[in-house]
Amino acid sequence: MAEEAWGRMFSAIGQTDTRQHYNDYAAKYEQDCACLGYSEPEEMVGMLKEVLPNFSDDHLQVLDIAAGTGLMGELLRSANFKGVIDGIDGSANMLEKAREKGIYRNLIEEFVLPDKALPLKDQMYDVTCCLGSMSVPHIQPEALKEFVRVTKTGGMMGFAVVTTPRSGAYEQKLAEIVKSLENSGQWKNLKAIKSAIFQYNFDKIDAEKTYTTHYVFERL
Ligand SMILES: C[S@@+](CC[C@H](N)C(=O)[O-])C[C@H]1O[C@@H](n2cnc3c(N)ncnc32)[C@H](O)[C@@H]1O
Predict the structure, then answer these.
(1) pLDDT tens across the length of the chain (220 residues)
(2) What is the 182 CA–ligand 1 centroid distance (Å)?
(3) Which atom of ligand 1 is closest in space to residue 68's alpha carbon?
(4) How far apart are the CA of 76 and the centre of ligand 1, in A?
(5) Would you say residue 103 lies in a domain?
(6) Which residues are near ligand 1 (CB < 6 Å)?
(7) In testing the pocket of ligand 1, which one of 64, 138, 198 has its CB within 8 Å of the most ligand atoms?
(8) Domain span at residue 177?
(9) pTM assigned to the model
């Protein structure tokens, strides 16, 4: 069963375009995440609780980029987050699952592209996060500049990046953008936590070459 879930989650994505993949996958996505032990949103909620002393204040506003079916929103609420949560995602069917949860205020159907501004004003959010989606078939590293633009000064940006034997070029570009945002005084790194990509995969792959790094940056 886990083998099939792994195939649906990873092998299938290169065989069609990303929007179509997730529109077709929406009904089974959460079942496969549970089966494989997907934990990026959970890890990120833990990190945000550590860096935000006012985590449970009801005036906080979160933007969940590539929100998918809303696992992050659900975990934030379970962790006693009382603020507003908005989401953006390119797949209507994934967003429909998120909408059914009744947790998100606004859910925007939009593909995040490297050369296109998010349809959001500057400095709207206390927290901007992006889980499961910083990789070649998903969101390109250039989008980090938009994460910064829509986050308030003093706010947090959290995202996770999967390292695989094939992610070198993507990660190199991401590292360049991270550095340029640091050098221009736009953000600073507060936390970086490395963990197994999925519990299921951990025993089966070379953990030195395939893992996830969760980052939290502060908007300066
Ligand atoms: C692996 S899922 C992650 C969903 C959710 N963040 C989670 O952790 O469960 C990837 C999501 O990213 C969305 N996505 C992929 N590329 C995107 C893009 N360029 N712009 C907007 N959404 C995108 C997909 O539609 C899908 O819902």
Answers:
(1) 787 887 788 766 665 689 999 999 999 999 999 998 899 999 999 999 999 999 999 999 999 999 999 999 999 999 999 999 999 999 999 999 999 999 999 999 999 999 899 999 999 999 999 999 999 889 999 999 999 999 999 999 999 999 988 899 999 999 999 999 999 999 999 999 998 877 766 556 676 778 899 999 999 9
(2) 26
(3) 27
(4) 18
(5) yes
(6) 18, 22, 40-41, 66-68, 71-72, 89-91, 94, 111-112, 131-133, 138-139
(7) 138
(8) 39-219
(9) 0.96
* Within-domain flag for 22: no
**Within a domain: 4:** no
What total of structural domains would you count in the chain? 1
Torsions phi, psi for 157 (to 5 deg): -125, 125
What amino acid occupies position 1? M
CATH number for position 205 = 3.40.50.150
Tell me, in angstroms, the distance from the centre of ligand 1 to residue 205's CA. Answer: 24
Separation of first and last alpha carbons in the chain? 45
Pick the residue whose CA is nearest to atom 4 on ligand 1: 68
Of all protein residues, the one whose alpha carbon is nearest to atom 16 of ligand 1 is 138
